[in-house]
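Support reply, case 0932

Customer input (verbatim):
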Amino acid sequence: MGAYKIKDIEVLTGIKAHTLRIWEKRYGILIPNRTDTHIRTYSDKELAYLLNVSLLNKSGHKISKIAKLENEEISKLVWDINYNSSENSDDKLILALVELDERLFRDTLAQLIAAHGLEQTFTNFIIPFLDRIGVMWLIGTINPAQEHFITNLIRQKIISEIDKLPIPEKDTYAVMLYLPEHEWHELSLLFYQFLLRKRGMNTIYLGQSLPYDSLIECIEKLKPDALMTSWLTPVDEVFIVNYFKNLEVHTANITIFVGGAQINNYSDKLPKSLKEIKTYQDLEKYFN
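Our regenerated output:
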């Protein structure tokens, strides 16, 4: 499936292109295919191999020794690192994605959360990991099944952490969280729900792709103090501008918190009353 160029390998494994060329020449670590124009290309199998090499090298194994190991020996050493160490978590997450290894991903994520908590794990590990997945999308070397596999594991873990928190009393400050009808990317919204719940706020989570009329009905029935939504999927400028103009009219004095790439793209066109969230630190600014 994959046809990675050396620059792609550099981004995904953390191995500098110059270093990889030296390893190939000096130790015969890999002999990549080349295009008609002599550009190196690497397969999914070779990417997984290089991720394993990178893990071993970062864990103190010399490249000269790694180059002499059989695949079975590399697999055994990597197994010990993957399941008995909390180091090199970023490489483990990518390896789990490439090999669709649920156990590796879940165990790595659990180790990170145990060590750093969900807030720091999401900010310092998950967001950079999702950025790397974005690179893989751009170069066409990840398919929808892989992306769905990983994002659903992340989603499950965030929901699990939310379930551990107490349910706030109904008379506390209430925030209704939802995604508009065309939007399905909910990881950031789930994370915001976790942050709000952790701070003792009453969250009403309506989830993905909520029709506008249903949103208004819920607002009228539950009367939240604030709304929170995220827009990542590209939309027409007229549509997003009219959407928020109408929402402002229908929600009267309710504060509206908004985030996502599309909000940033059209921020100068949207109502000034909207409170834009670019990072979770913005959330802390508004709710502390």
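We compared this against your earlier run and they match. Two observations from our side: The chain has a mean pLDDT of 86. Residues 23 and 85 are 26 Å apart (CA to CA). Please reopen the case if you see a mismatch on your end.
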